[in-house]
Design brief:
Number of strands: 13
Number of helices: 11
Distance between the termini: 24 Å
CATH topology of one domain: Rossmann fold
Largest sheet: 9 strands, mixed
Shape: globular
Helix content: 25-40%
CATH architecture of one domain: 3-Layer(aba) Sandwich
CATH superfamily of one domain: P-loop containing nucleotide triphosphate hydrolases
Oligomer: single chain
Length: 329
């Protein structure tokens, strides 16, 4: 893994106009991804994780729009490319595994044909059907779909949930992308299948050097899989660091709150402490720290102005005034 960012987000902001006002689903997000890196983005549902991924691929549906910022892939700003140039990158260089395979896969087409579509669009096998089918069967076998020659012609409803997710991963891997965006890839799967899917993605990373961004609300899963973790709340990143930094020495009250919500198996029984209060309305986020009203350490100054990142250790950034003596990033 090199130190040169493969993907870099700079002040990315995505908004959705609503009757209640402008919802800033992603607010001023800056983040980098190195070649071959395993990065986790964690947070509660509705905090902006998935919208960040969709913004990278410019898949924001109207009337939503990317209002500001940059998404630099190998130095090229994806947000300034033409639609045609973006289509060449989407699926080929940057691919995404969506969280609900049943609604992502088309029920009217065989699974094998849906995997083959990426190869056809990007001319990977020069539109040669026999070569494309051979490659699809290789992919299905690689992701653990049994009897791929027979299952090439089967439809999504004939696949189990775990096999549907494997088919989505095969679609994403078809063109051997440099980056894989995995949006809650284990949602609704039982723990055994979850482990198999995560093991599959780890092997893909090791064998191909594919950089993977794992979007999840499961901090334990991110801790086991990722090298770095970014914690997101109300559309903003609030803490970024290595997995050890974020898990062993969490500095933002929200990160600590997420960790205390995780049940632990131990000799001593401990009560699970939920985070009090509710996530703020993204159409009316209060000034200052969005987490302030739920924070036991809140001071009046926390609600005044937008809080910058403070670097408390090399690579460990936190958006909290408790660390205002540190160097602002």
């Amino acid at each position: 893994m090199t130190n040169t960012p493969l993907l870099e987000l700079k002040n990315l902001t995505t908004v959705f106009p609503t009757r209640r006002g402008l919802v800033r689903a992603v607010a001023d997000v800056s983040l980098s991804l190195a070649q071959g890196e395993l990065l986790g983005i964690v947070g509660e549902s509705g905090c902006g994780k998935s919208v960040t991924m969709l913004s990278i691929l410019r898949l924001i549906s109207t009337p939503g729009r990317i209002a500001a910022g940059q998404a630099l892939f190998q130095g090229r700003d994806l947000l300034k490319l033409s639609d045609g140039a973006m289509r060449q990158i989407r699926g080929k260089d940057i691919a995404m595994v969506f969280q609900d395979p049943l609604s992502t896969l088309n029920p009217a087409f065989p699974v094998g044909e849906q995997i083959r579509e990426s190869l056809r669009i990007h001319h990977i096998a020069q539109n040669h059907f026999a070569r494309e089918k051979e490659r699809v069967i290789e992919l299905m076998s690689e992701v653990g779909i049994s009897s791929p020659t027979d299952r090439f012609h089967e439809y999504p409803h004939q696949f189990s949930g775990g096999m549907q997710q494997r088919a989505l991963i095969a679609i994403a891997l078809a063109c051997e992308p440099k980056i894989l965006l995995a949006d809650e890839p284990t949602t609704s799967l039982d723990v055994t299948i979850q482990a198999q899917i995560m093991d599959l993605m780890r092997r893909i990373n090791e064998a191909r050097g594919t950089a993977i961004v794992l979007v999840t609300h499961n901090l334990d899963l991110a801790a086991e899989f990722c090298q770095r973790i970014a914690v997101m709340y109300a559309g903003r990143l609030v803490e970024i660091g290595t997995t050890d930094q974020v898990i062993e020495t969490p500095q933002h009250p929200y990160t600590r709150g997420l960790l205390t919500c995780i049940p632990r198996i131990s000799a001593q029984r401990t009560r699970i402490e939920p985070i009090p209060g509710n996530v703020p309305d993204l159409a009316n986020v209060p000034p200052g720290c969005a987490f302030a009203e739920r924070c036991s350490e809140m001071q009046p100054i926390c609600q005044n102005d937008l809080i910058p990142f403070f670097e408390i250790a090399p690579g460990h950034l936190v958006r909290c005034l408790r660390h205002s003596s540190a160097t602002p990033d």
